[in-house]
Amino acid sequence: MYLSKIALRNLFRRSGRTLIIAGVLAFAIFFAIILETFMAGMMEMSFSNIIDFDSAHLQIARPELFADNEDPLDHLFTPTEEVLTEIEKLPGFVATTPVLDFSANMLAGREEYPVRVRAAAPASFKEVFRYQDYLIEGDFLQAGDSGLVIGMNLAEILDLQVGDFYTLLFREEGGSLNTIQGEILGIAATPEPGMNLGTVIIDQSFAASALGVSSSEINQLKVKMTDRHSAVARSESLEKQLTGSLAKDFQVNSWRDVSDMLVAMEVWGQLETYFIVALILLVGAIGIINVVVLSSLERVEEIGMMKAMGLSEKQIVKIFSIEASGLGVIGGLIGAGLGAVGTYLLVNIGFDLQLLYGDITLELGIPILGTIYGVWKPQSFIIFFTLAVTVALISSLIPSYWAARKDPVDAIYHR
After folding, report:
1. What is the DSSP secondary structure assignment for residue 278, as one 8-state letter?
2. In what helix (H) or strand (E) does residue 129 lie, and over which residues does it extend?
3. For range 318-344, the mean pLDDT
4. What is the pLDDT of residues 182-234, one digit of tens each?
5. What's the average model confidence in pLDDT over 320-342?
6. Are 247 and 62 in contact (CB under 8 A)?
């Protein structure tokens, strides 16, 4: 306790210097917490958008469909009752919907644009995906409709509105060219920019007749679960079950399997955060070393008196280490406090992604539009606070030993 009192008194002897170094540490903690919150929010929204508008939690298809970038019409199948029963038996199962994806060129007047056509069963499609929640014009598909739902960006490029006519030019299963014609039923503005630009939704039974395939043939089953985190394990167990007893030529992928780039971005984002924080903390560590050295030079005679009074080198080192740790605690508390305020604002108000990336989120591979909201991560506060105190303590050890090893006689009569 006596050593701690000496250390705390010396800590505030040069309050300006203390605040500067603590401020550097505080900035590192604040920056780390905000960046961690922002990245967590961006990844959370990215994965949610992929699940809600593209992949669902699980997707079941022929293995060749996931490995082959050519015509998806080459990998059709008809789901059996046994397969559907196995899917419905999954813990956390919510709903499933059949999907028939194929490529086409969309024609509107003189304009032409390549799109992915997603032929869907409207009733079950609504239970798995959320397109109907983001319609800004018109209505969603009904069974038997000849129209389609398109994204806002595609509508702008082709200058289409609800009620306008379209033409889809594609190759049917036999390889010959064919067309589908109808009118625009609805326009959606989803938070997933890729779906707004490159995907159109059409009724499955209507598309099947134009494609020359059976109305029961599809190339994917999409499955919605209650929890995206458990869906990864469920995909493995379902594939084992299907492979072992029912359908050896099926593959089950989770949302994470189709989000390789996002997973990589998540990892690199974390590495980037820690790298930047490490640089800032390095600056803080250098500052702490300077503080300890300057403090020891200013208190050479005081150190000599302490050694003459019987304090050991270990006790003197402890005094300087407590001072440095105090800098870490002050900086950590200030940084954590500011980080809490910043996180609160990000969670409740959010950040408009266009201010950071403009309109190029699709080119960057970020499946988000609009405002990103942060995520509370209490463990980040603990980790970064502990890191600041640890860096401060470790930085003080060498200069503390240097100060403590001074000869007491020379130190007392130091000039």
Report:
1. H
2. none
3. 85
4. 899 999 988 888 888 889 999 998 888 888 888 888 999 999 999 888 888 88
5. 85
6. no
Nearest-10 Cα torsion for 156, 160, 162, 165: -160
Q: What is the pLDDT, as a whole number, of residue 137?
A: 92
338, pLDDT greater than 50: yes
Answer whether residue 149 shows pLDDT above 60. yes
Return the half-sphere exposure (C-beta side, CA atoms, 13 A cut-off) of residue 333.
6
Cα(347)–Cα(369) distance, integer angstroms: 17
Sign of CA dihedral 345, 347, 348, 350: positive
d(Cα 300, Cα 413) in Å, to the nearest integer? 9
Residue 2 β-bridge partners? none
Residues 50 and 64: their CA atoms lie apart, in Å, by 21
Instruction: Look at strands 148-151 and 177-188 and give their pairing.
Output: parallel
Find tokens 């038997």 and name the residue.
Answer: 144
CA terminus-to-terminus distance, the chain: 31
Which amino acid is residue 349, in one-letter code?
Answer: I
Residues 90/238, Cβ–Cβ less than 8 Å: yes
pLDDT at 118: 93
- Which one, of 333, 350, 316, 345, lies nearest residue 384 by Cα? 333
Distance between CA 84 and CA 78 in Å, rounded?
11
H, E, C per residue of 290-346:
HHHHHHHHHCHHHHHHHHHCCCCHHHHHHHHHHHHHHHHHHHHHHHHHHHHHHHHHH
Average pLDDT over residues 102-107: 90
Query: 73 near 192, Cβ under 8 Å?
Result: no
pLDDT score of 236: 80
Q: Considering the chain, what percentage of its residues have pLDDT values greater than 90?
A: 18
What is the rounded CA–CA span in Å between residue 201 and residue 171? 17
Computed from CA positions of residues 155, 156, 158, 162, in that sequence, does the dihedral angle turn out positive or negative? positive
Which residue type, as a one-letter code, is found at position 228? R
Query: pLDDT tens for residues 351-402?
Result: 776 665 555 454 444 555 667 788 888 888 888 888 888 887 787 777 777 7
Place of tokens 């640890």: 390
Task: Answer positive or negative: Cα dihedral of 402, 403, 405, 410.
Answer: positive
The predicted pLDDT at position 364 comes to 47
* CA trace torsion 378, 380, 384, 390 (10° rounding): 80
